[in-house]
TrEMBL record, chains A, B:
GO biological process, one term: pantothenate biosynthetic process
Cited function: Catalyzes the NADPH-dependent reduction of ketopantoate into pantoic acid.
Keywords: NADP, Oxidoreductase, Pantothenate biosynthesis
InterPro entries per record: 6-PGluconate_DH-like_C_sf, 6PGD_dom2, ApbA, Ketopantoate_reductase, KPA_reductase, KPR_N, NAD(P)-bd_dom_sf
Cross-referenced NCBIfam families: apbA_panE, PRK06522.2-4
Record has NADP as a keyword: yes
Annotated Ketopantoate reductase C-terminal domain residues: 177-290
Organism name: Ectobacillus ponti
The protein, known as: 2-dehydropantoate 2-reductase
Record GO terms (molecular function): 2-dehydropantoate 2-reductase activity; NADP binding
Length: 291, 291
């Protein structure tokens, strides 16, 4: 099977490595010709614990030609999705979007091609143009967003490996919302306060501020159950020493995913007419700080 | 006339210097015996532009004996006022509180002694234990909070100097509220964002966040007029390069005046039943960050 992976970040490299190892003909589509040349020459090395292996997929720059792949797995940042989609109009590939946000779901529903989300529960860290560290082995949940279910009937079986599992997820919307509410609690606040994830739990004042954000977001999403708040706290605890991706982006002077996370919720709050003063304040604050 | 000044910060030193120069017998009450000894030996030097003068008031540590002054001017941080008041119960002095917040006004109304606010519109910077720079000459507005008006009838005339004017202010509550709303817009946000005052005006996203805070605070205070927002912007512009006192406190690991500013407004919002989600969020955030 021909499988294209769009994006050479941590998730793109991770999927390209494992799917190539599963026996498919993988093409990695990169943004820069330097990274494509590097992968062509050196392959993709995946480090997992003490072990280190290299796979040799093809690599080319994205956007030069219409992809001929049976599947295209899109692993770019949420805000780059519209640019990727513009090059897809003539492609016949089935599409899998690997972002954990929700702001692209509406876009997906307008595509001609069958489209699914792949909810990624792996931890991965890019350590070079062709090197990825698989820090937290997990799984990928496949959820069909548009098109015939039959279009993805073989996907789970095709990609699944014991060391890199794929499972079907019928309640993909519930899973994405659960992830969204964790992101909306942790990401903007750690970015604003410049603290690691654990501080939001350990400092009672910051926890109280996070609780306020949670209640507003949960109200917008209609997810006011106790279990969701417990999951937010659990993730803070489990990732206590981590720098959130939004704080890392802010510190590196990169664009953050504030639009995909808080911007999406603001859109929902407008649709439903539910007030969201804190989310609006956080949105403007992070937008302002990313300069 | 015997005049005591409680507090050896910038405002305390400034008032002690000028009132001693006006011919009164000034005692400065300091927190540390080192500062009292320093002032006893070297006096208080006030720098204003190119000119520099020294006055020689008496200086002692606060709290050792009941003050015998005719007037006591209290120039401590808002959060130290309760501790100062505890030592005042037997004093017969008329009291003038030089803080620009509002959270102590209720306390003042419970005092036995006649009490006034002195709204300070001078800029001053402490440059040593006995040195103050008078950076922005302005004036002091005297407003009687409790007790007979007659008790303060002579105050304006007693303290007034051409270079250090005192004026009577009947609408002291309106003036303090105007200052409060400026403080509540500028102080917590500059502290949270770690930016100088001007950034709140120059960055359109941060300005929009400040506008949200303004609207909520103005609603709580019933001050929704256009002129108040214009004044907030004007102060941001005039003090664009300045580090706000709350940001400076946070950076130095000192306690901030968040209780006197945002805490006061939260109290008002509870009394009136007006919701204040952003003020509550800012309160918890700054409390959390000051550790």
């Amino acid at each position: 099977m021909k499988v294209g992976i769009v994006g050479g970040g941590a998730i793109g490299l991770l999927f390209a490595y494992y799917i190539q190892r599963a026996g498919h003909a993988v093409t990695v589509y990169t943004r820069t010709k330097e990274q494509a040349a590097y992968i062509q020459r050196n392959g993709i090395t995946c480090i997992r614990g003490e072990r280190e292996h290299t796979a040799f997929p093809r690599a080319v720059v994205w956007g030069l030609q219409i992809p001929q792949d049976d599947y295209l797995l899109v692993a770019v940042k949420q805000y780059d999705i519209p640019a990727v989609i513009r090059h897809l109009s003539d492609a016949k590939s089935r599409l899998v979007f690997l972002q954990n946000g929700m702001s692209h779901v509406e876009l997906m529903q307008q595509l001609r091609q069958p489209a699914a989300v792949g909810i990624v529960e792996h931890g991965a860290k890019r350590e070079g143009p062709g090197t990825v560290r698989h820090t937290g082995p997990g799984l990928t949940r496949l959820g069909i967003v548009s098109g015939e279910a039959a279009a993805f009937a073989d996907a789970e079986g095709l990609f699944h490996m014991e060391s890199f599992p794929f499972v079907e997820e019928n309640d993909w919307q519930g899973v994405l919302q659960g992830k969204l509410i964790v992101n909306v609690c942790i990401n903007p606040l750690t970015a604003l306060y410049r603290v690691s994830n654990g501080a939001l739990l350990q400092n009672p004042h910051l926890q109280s501020a996070m609780r306020q954000v949670f209640l507003e977001a949960a109200h917008v999403l209609g997810m006011e159950d106790k279990e969701h708040w417990e999951r937010v706290c659990h993730v803070c605890e489990k990732t206590a020493a981590n720098t959130s991706s939004m704080l890392a982006d802010l510190q590196a002077g990169r664009e953050t995913e504030i639009d995909a996370i808080v911007g999406y919720l603001l859109g929902e709050s407008e649709k439903s007419g539910k007030a969201a003063p804190l989310l609006s304040f956080l949105y403007q604050s992070v937008k302002g700080l990313q300069g």
